[in-house]
Amino acid sequence: MSPTDQTTITVVADEFGRDLDAAYGTIARTIATARERGTDLLVLPEACLGGYLPSLGSVHDDEETLARRRRNLPPAFALDGPELARVAAMAGDMTVLLGLCERAEEGGAEVRYNTAVALTGDGVLAAHRKVHQPLGENLSYSAASRFEAFDSPVGRIGMLICYDKAFPEASRTLALDGAEIIAALSAWPTARTAAADRIEDDRWKKRFDLYDAARALDNQVVWAASNQTGTFGSLRFVGNAKVVGPGGDVRAETGVAGGLATVTLDVHAELAAVRQGMYALRDRRPSAYRLDAVLPDYPAERPEPAYA
């Protein structure tokens, strides 16, 4: 891609559950609409294939609750299986990012990861396994331990999944690895306690939006955030997919009802313009940062989790 190329990015907020036929139908329609808009990069939500968890767990759950959750886990797929090959065939020359539950084998045992995949018609380009696990997600998925950017037809991309974006170290690692675009795929729900009547007023929706703007500005990158909408099990998702410029300005968003938001921009020119003065990555002082600092004390039982 030449430095003057325009890149069209489309982000998606839509509903995905256990019904795979319905998911493929939604993905096919979305890709068709995105193609009509000239999309180069399409970012679908976390857990597109097979849906997310119907509820968030706790270490205090009784055995009956744990057994019920195990029965309701999403289906798990191999990255080289027919499920992703079907999406790749739809993608053609478009770069498509989407989430699924990944089935992998480690040490002779089967494990599950909450995974985001980037693919084109040629197959899988890269995968990111979710690192940060909120509120009992570790009862259903294994956690990964790395963030890496990758080269794609639209430039160098980094991927995050949902709660990953709450940690500035995650997006900073991707930016330092050369990511020009960071895509954050989510199934981000409303608050579990004292939920607002209107999603627009929900506390966790506001956090979702703040993280998107802050992480784009922190790293002076183009930020593409997708999300689920609707409800699944006990969860209600906040939607509001968006593209944020490297200055932290929201260029387009879907709103809580969902849909597609599309932006066309010259990624290299945008980054150069915002980085020519205060360039955050250049001006870091790593020797001043206490990465080994001891955590402050906090109550063992928090009245409200930070995020689910």
TrEMBL record:
Pfam families linked to this entry: CN_hydrolase (PF00795)
Keywords: Hydrolase
Domain CN hydrolase: 7-267
InterPro entries registered for this protein in UniProt: Aliph_Amidase/BUP, C-N_Hydrolase, C-N_Hydrolase_sf
Coiled coil: none
MF-aspect GO terms: hydrolase activity, acting on carbon-nitrogen (but not peptide) bonds, in linear amides
PANTHER family, A to Z: CARBON-NITROGEN FAMILY, PUTATIVE (AFU_ORTHOLOGUE AFUA_5G02350)-RELATED, NITRILASE C965.09-RELATED
Protein name: Nitrilase
